[in-house]
Each structure stands twice: as structure tokens, then as C-alpha cells.
Amino acid sequence: MKQKASIGIIIGNRDFFPDKLVSEARLDVIEQFEKLKLNYIILDEEETKLGGVESFRDAQKCAALFKKHADEINGVLVILPNFGDERGVAETLKLADLNVPVLIQAYPDELTKLDVARRRDSWCGKISVCNNLYQFGIKYTLTDKHVLHPKDPAFAKELTDFVAVCRVVRGLRKVRIGAVGARPGGFNTVRYSEKILQRNGISVTTVDLSEILGNANKLTKDHPEVKEHLDKILAYAPKGKTPDEAMIQIAKLDVVLKHFMDHNFLDATAIQCWTSLQKNYGCNVCTSMSMMSENMLPSACEVDVTGTLTMYAMQLASGSPSALVDWNNNYADDDTKCVLFHCGNWAKSFLPDIQISNAPILGTTVGVENTYGALDGRTPASPLTYGRISTDDPKGIIKVYIGEGELTDDPLNTFGNRAVAQIDGLQDLMQYVCKNGFEHHVVMNASKTAAILEEALGNYMGWEVYNHSKSK
Predict the structure, then answer these.
(1) CATH of the domain at 60
(2) Same domain, residue pair 153 and 182
(3) Which positions ≥6 away from 415 have C-beta within 8 Å?
(4) Residue 398, phi then psi, degrees to nearest 5
(5) Residue 13: CB partners within 8 Å, gap ≥ 6?
(6) Are 368 and 412 part of one and the same domain?
(7) Residue 287 falls inside a structural domain
(8) What region holds the L-fucose isomerase C-terminal domain (predicted)?
(9) What mean pLDDT is predicted for residues 228-237?
(10) What's the whole-model pTM score?
(11) How many domains does the structure of the chain reveal?
């Protein structure tokens, strides 16, 4: 995600501490933001004493500024160069009513500067600010170290991760997902609750598969959009042995899916592919799904709506595409490794040897000639974040598991989209997945973003989150 993040900045102050600490903090934090190329919204030094917040009047001014830029602000950073005024910080956030993530930073003291003229007491002030935010019901994020200087490289990482948390939260609270077709009868595992999702700001727009296929069948190979989409598909991946007729079918379907997404302002899709498409239309939709996912419009098969929601969340956290996979096979007798697999809809980023092919397993029941459009390719070694968002209807909640591992270059002689994953405590993870009723689908992302996802989904979205990596 290349767009700049806008973060509101509150500099807390308390009147009996040296004012110069506020001025120094302002310069420190602005320098860090500019180094990271982040947008910021901050009080002018003339609006309050040095642009700090230490009274209700200051809070009113800062809140008014934030409200003016509410559409831009994804999160708020609270800077404590000294003890700070906990009420000023809390009142600002209450009055601004942004409902965005809040990061609390506090400056470290120096042992040689603990005299009256130079001491900060930010260690203590941070506790007081957090106590007030807790009382006000305002959720907040902490730095790993209790006090941390804004010029410390560790703070740059904290701030970058916080911006990713803000991106996930903002994205999920307004995401629009398209459900194309009915859930395949043999896949009870992907059932979900639209109502629980809607309560969390996640909208699902449905369409009957017959409408999509009917509109696709009305197009001809000579239609300008079909030609345009065919060229894009051929530029995306080699066609291999895929017949020209199948390529035309794939292109026509791609045109109609784009129309559906554009008309409904969708961010992601979940598409019925097993087995109506093959029987009634004569091709797979995997290539189109791969192209959408590569272009940050994630698409999941088997109408796995919460699967594509997970893809979207991970993409927001990492800024890179995600893929829906099956927890599919053991890897020989190695208890820490397993095979991840799907027919062939992973984003191109995962498949350096990508090629348009067919789906041999599906072909055994519907005819291989009706399965062209599935992709073939092996994912090489890379970092791995995996996880799954699911609605637990009996409990009326959204639950999540996440973790980190590695994708490896271990030998794997098979077809389709495939990868080998190495995960510490894999057997315990599978126990957790099975005991807690999660789906056989999981999502992978080539990143290390489990902590970002835990903070965004657990703290701010209020979902039940299990971080397997942390448990290990």
C-alpha cells in the first residue's frame, strides 16, 4: 500500500516541567515522520504553548484540528516529553471522537539529568495517561519498551508497525466483499455469518452465478473489452497449452467480474468455482482471481468470504498480496513442515514460474478440458505469516488465529499451486485449529506481520485472537 498515512500528533505537557522539552520533542518527532515519509497533523506552536496540550482549552483546540482532518487521520500518536497532562490527552481524544488507533510514546530520562531543571518523569506520566484512557474507554497501543526516544531506530520500527495497524483497522471497518454464487454444497466449512460481519463494518454483496455466466456468454471474442482483457491475461502469465477457445472464455468472465466489482465498489471477492463454473461455462476462474489478488483486490474460491477477508487484512498489514491455501499434506515425517496447496489461484507474487494450466483433480469429475484457467507454479522460500478469520456463529463472535513461519525450498513433486511451510509447534497449531472449529483454508502472506494483525484485530476490532508464534 503506497498511499501516505496521516497521523494526528498530541504532545503532552505539564506546566511545572521545562517548556524546552516540548519544543525539542516537536522537532524530534517531525524529523522522524519526514524521514519515514509520513503525513502528520499537529497543532501550530502559536495555537497553544509551544503546540503542546496541557489544559481543557488546549484539548479543545487540538480536537478541533483533528476533526477538521478526520477523513485523513488513520491514527493518533501521543508524545510525552515529560509527565504530560493525562486529562488533556484523554479529553482531546474524547472530543475529537476519531475512533482510531492511538500509540503512546514516552521519553526516557538520563541519569545525569534528573535535577529539577531537566528531569522528565515520562515513565510515570505514561502510566497516568494510559490509566485515563482506560477510564475513558479509549483503546491504545504501547511501545515494546516503556520509554523510547523518537530518534531511536526501534521507535521508527514501532511507528511503521503502528501505521500498518491503523491501515488494517481503517480498511476492515469499511471493507466491501462480493460473494459470487452460492457456497458449493460440499463445503460446509466455509459457512459464515453475514450479520456478524456487518456488525463489524464488513459488508457483503451477493450475486447469483447465473447472472455472471449469462452476461459473460453474451460477449463475443471480438468485443473490445474482451480483447483488452485477453491481452492483459496473456501479459500476466504464459498460456502454456491452454487452447485459444478457453482463453476467450477466461477473458469474457474477467470482463464481467470487473464490471460487477466496479458497479458495487468492492474491495475483494469470493467466487463459486467448484463445480458449477466448469460444468456450465467450461473453464476455471483461477487466473482472474490471481490477477485480482496481485492487484490488491483479493479473491478467494469456494465463496470463502471470511477467507478473502483474511487475505485483505494481511494485505493491509504487509502491503503485499495474500493467497488462500489449504492445510493440505504432511511433509514426509517432519513434524514442523506441511504442504500448502490449491488448484491454482495464488497471486503472481507467489509464483515466479507461473503458467496457465488446468486442474487435474477437478478434471477427474468435470473433464480436464473444462478446467483450463487454473495456474501452475511453486512458491520459493520466503517469510511467512499465516492465519484465518472466522465467524463463530454459536458464540456470536469473530475469532482469529495467526502466526509466523517460513516457506522453504524443500523438494515437492506435484502440480497446482504449492509450497512447503515450516512452522514451530505445527502439531500444536493443528490441534488448536481442529479443536476450535476453524476451516481447512488458511491464508498466507510473504511477511512477518503477526504482531501487527494481533494488535489490529484483537485490540481495536475486538476480536478473539490467538497468536501461535507468541505462544511458542
Answers:
(1) 3.40.50.10940
(2) no
(3) 357, 360, 376
(4) -105, 130
(5) 19, 21, 22, 49, 50, 52, 53, 54, 81, 82, 84, 85, 88
(6) yes
(7) yes
(8) 340-466
(9) 98
(10) 0.96
(11) 2
